[in-house]
Every structure is written in C-alpha cells, then in structure tokens.
C-alpha cells in the first residue's frame, strides 16, 4: 500500500481529474448510454514492473465509487507484455471518463518502477550498493514517484529539504569552506541528524573527512577518482556516487565500494510504460441476459 496520507493522495488525484474533466467528457456523454454497464481490461503492452495500482483504483473511484477493480498483480511485481494487469467493471460512462487520468498515473509510476528495477539489477550480486532517487521529481507528484522507486527496488534519498542535511557546492560557496559549512551545521542541529557533504575533488574528500561529515557524496567523479576516494575514506563515512550515472556505470561504481548510487533519471527521465484500457463488453442496466 502507498504509505502516505489519503487526503494528500486524493488532492493529487482531484487536481489531475479537474485538469481533464472539470467541464465534463462531451464525447462520452454524447455517445454512451448512461445506463450502460461494462468491463474493461488494463493490458501491459510491454514487460514492466507494476507501480500505482492503488492510485489507478482511487482515480477511477473518485469519478464513480461504483466502479469495481479486480487486481491481477501486486505493485513491485514484474508484469509480462500482454498480461491483464486488472479488470475494471461498472458504468461505461464513468470508466471512459476516468480512463486517461487513471492510466497516466499507472503508466508513469510503472515507468519509474521499471527503470529503477533495471538500475537495481545492474548492481552486481553480493554488492552492498543501493540505488537511491533524488529530489528531481515532477512538481506535486514526488510522493507518488518515490513510492514507485521503492516498488522498483530503490530507496529514497530525501523526501524534502527538511528530511536531511545535504551540504552542496552552493552552500559551501556561501560559507567559504567545507569545514565552515559542516561546523555551522553541527552547531545548529540535533546530533541525530546525519550530515552529508557533496564533493567534486579528492581534496574536497579530505576536507569533508576532516570536518566530520558522516556521508560524502562524490559528484560527477571519474571512476578512477571514485576508487581513490573510497580508499581514502576507509569506512569513516558512508559514500554516495552521484551525477551522470548511467546503467553502464553502475557495476563499476558498485565494485568501487560506494554505499549508494543516486540517480535523478529514475524520476525525471523514466519513460511511461505502454498500458492500455480495453472495453470488453457493455449492456444497459436491466437488460442483463
């Protein structure tokens, strides 16, 4: 289940529905008898990892609570191309009206889960490295996108700016040095907060270590420098690799010994999965054979 407030999720869904049907669905209203009942199948047109089935169902039910969903797969499971992901039964007018919004959520979230699974699977077997997301998410959709990352086997880096201390290059520029930035952070926050510092050179790795950073983010470093950085750190801090990470780079970064690989592309560049909704049958109420 999606571990977030039902109120928040419903707000997101309502905004999406308002965008699409605030003034009605004139095509369906003209063509379809409002008494007609029917059944539709959500079909995977490609191999994918499922995410967002609950959001799909909620979107349908926000349009019409009498729509019923029969799920065939659980979020996080692989779905082979051609499979029926779920069946949808209820008033055909309502199904058609909710179709695009519900599919947009399901396709987008499954795309993120599918790409995340590819990155997670690229970590060589037995390696400790975990794949994490970033805050490079679509506005408003972060909570859904991070859930989809979890369905694909990734973990969340930071939910928002209040959920962790990450001292980046611009913070360092304002403070004047890594040491000063970390010192200010340590004075101002509870000791239970873990301090992470972004670095781009081996000299900055040394500075971050000397300052007492607990996590060191190696930003856009060549693999040879990543290896040297991990050797210098020697377990005194957790190590994250970030910036320009592709599937091809994941095995080498993992073998270098980093603890985390953060990938913005999981959320900002994941292609939506090809999922269609196909009406199977319909009948007017009171005329069921």
**Rg (CA only):** 23 Å
CATH architecture of the largest domain: Alpha-Beta Barrel
Proportion in β-strands: 15-25%
* CATH topology-level fold name of the largest domain: TIM Barrel
Number of domains: 2
Distance between the termini: 37 Å
* Average pLDDT score: 93
How many strands? Answer: 12
Spatial order of strands in the largest sheet: 6-11-10-9-8-7
What does this structure look like?
This protein is α/β, with parallel strands linked by helices and 289 residues long. It folds into two domains: 6-119 and 271-284, Aldehyde Oxidoreductase, domain 3, CATH 3.90.1170; 121-268, TIM Barrel (Alpha-Beta Barrel), CATH 3.20.20.70. 43% of the residues lie in helices and 20% in strands. It is built from eleven helices and twelve strands. The chain has helices spanning 6-21, 26-31, 53-63, 92-122, 142-151, 169-175, 178-188, 202-211, 223-233, 250-256, 265-268, and strands spanning 36-44, 48-49, 68-71, 78-79, 84-91, 130-132, 165-167, 195-199, 215-219, 238-242, 260-262, 275-284. The strands form three sheets. Strands 6-11-10-9-8-7 form a six-stranded parallel sheet. Strand 9, helix 9 (223-233) and strand 10 (238-242) form a beta-alpha-beta unit. The chain is elongated, with a radius of gyration of 23 Å. Mean pLDDT is 93; it is low at 285-289.
């Amino acid at each position: 289940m999606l571990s977030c407030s039902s109120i928040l999720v419903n707000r997101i869904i309502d905004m999406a529905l308002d965008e699409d049907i605030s003034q009605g669905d004139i095509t369906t209203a003209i063509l379809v008898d409002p008494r007609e009942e029917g059944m539709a199948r959500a079909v995977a047109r490609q191999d994918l990892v499922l995410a967002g089935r609950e959001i799909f169902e909620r979107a349908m039910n926000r349009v019409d609570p009498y729509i019923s969903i029969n799920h065939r797969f659980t979020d996080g499971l692989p779905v082979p191309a051609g499979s029926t992901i779920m069946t949808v039964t209820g008033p055909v007018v309502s199904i058609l009206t909710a179709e695009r919004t519900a599919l947009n959520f399901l396709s987008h979230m499954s795309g993120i889960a599918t790409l995340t699974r590819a990155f997670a699977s690229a970590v060589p077997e037995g390696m400790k490295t975990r794949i994490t997301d970033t805050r490079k998410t679509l506005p408003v959709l972060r909570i859904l996108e991070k859930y989809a990352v979890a369905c694909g086997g990734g973990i969340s880096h930071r939910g928002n700016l209040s959920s962790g201390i990450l001292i980046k290059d611009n913070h360092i520029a304002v403070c004047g040095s890594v040491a000063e930035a970390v010192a200010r952070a340590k004075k101002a926050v509870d000791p239970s907060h873990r301090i992470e510092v972004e670095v781009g050179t081996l000299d900055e790795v040394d500075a971050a270590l000397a300052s007492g950073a607990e996590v060191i983010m190696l930003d856009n470093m060549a693999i040879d420098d990543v290896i040297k950085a991990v050797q210098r750190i020697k377990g005194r801090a957790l190590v994250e690799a970030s910036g320009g990470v592709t599937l091809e780079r994941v095995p080498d970064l993992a073998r270098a010994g980093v603890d985390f690989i953060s990938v913005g592309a999981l959320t900002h560049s994941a292609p939506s999965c090809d999922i269609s909704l196909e009406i199977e049958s319909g009948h007017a109420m009171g005329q069921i054979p």
